[in-house]
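ok so I'm stuck.
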Amino acid sequence: MKELPDLKELTDEAKDALILKLWEELQKLQQAQKKQPKKTSRNSSLPPAQGFKAEVKSKGIGIIDENRAGRMGREGGGRQLSENPNQIIRATVKICAGCGQEIAESMQSIMERYDKIEIPVIQPIVTRIERYGCRCRNCGEQQMADVPVGLEAGSPFGNRIAALVTTMRYSHGISYGRMQQMLEEVFGLEISEGAIANLLSRVKGELDSEVEGILQTLRSSRLVCSDETSARVNGKNQWEWVFQNDQVCFHVIRPSRGGDVIQEVMAEHRPQIWVSDLFSAQKTHPATKWQVCLAHQLRDCQYGIDAGDEIFSGRMKKLLLRAFALHKRWEGLAASTRYQYRCRLYRDLEVVLALLPTQEDGVRLQKRYLELRENLFLFLDDSTIPPTNNASEQALRWSVIFRKVTNGFRSDWGRDLFAAVRSIVNTGKRHGLSAFQAILAALNPLESLFPLS
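replied:
not stuck anymore, here's the structure
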């Protein structure tokens, strides 16, 4: 029944029949819903914070479950001594506490050694710039002295302050008000919330060239991994996309979750390998080959097992786990051994795909993998291909936290600045830089975040 008939035209018998039919359909739907397993982080993409959590059974007051008891840790060794202490204080015995006899320093040996660590009082360094000039006596042209790079007129705040403010805002989610208070109380820097906003606006312009370099490097990469998550901009839902590999990470936030974003970012570039989940827009990728994220497939197979599929899902999950185990050992295997393992895995895949599941989730998964059989194990042919898209999800993890802490962005420039900062920070992370170091390097006109070629 696609449309409800006009009830005024139905007889009492027809109405009774309609009610009975709708009741029977309702009962079927309720029974089907009861049979479906609860979705958790183990069998779906649901985050652990939202997943179903079973109640922990108590064994009584004062009794601790062995599975939840504290574990015996290693014996603590204390903090390691600093290799280069700023100063060393030698405490030697002058006289014996018992009899008052003087004790020579040559008789004593070190009994204990430890460090005391302190942070000095932090105060801003103020540099006054005085530019001199005059009118040339020869030609009459007005002359003014040049200033060193980084000390030009304009904002009074230097790059380290700009990098610190950007890190506190976009890597720790600190609000303008709390940041203003912290900068004054901890760093001795008086700055207004308006000045913080102006400083971040300046940072946006200075990061553009570095972000463009990241994008150009991405457009020459042979391998690209991609994922997306929701973002709030001006009270509306948009989407944050990430495109990354082991060299660069590029973030962009757009109103669309469609394939047009992939086309915008990749332009005319066609990478050899694309790694992503099965979201429909990701299937429009321009790459020659596509490696699907097996972490998602493991969870989907687990859902099929939880739903009651006893034929296909369990065997497919074991096959995927075998592939993961092989990937961990891959570098230490000979080429001939790799070939044999790979051939055996593909043969076993064909055996599993030939099964005849009867449960609907098993049938659905079998149909999926019949279409994706060429996209499951590309990482066994090329060790540079990751078997999962976990790196993309990790790149987006802080974005999810930032969205929950701040409830999103109030302007497009704030949205674009956040994407630029995350691009800088995550690219710097791939080159061993902290968030502060990466932002500071990107703001320095004499330094590059990483060697772009």
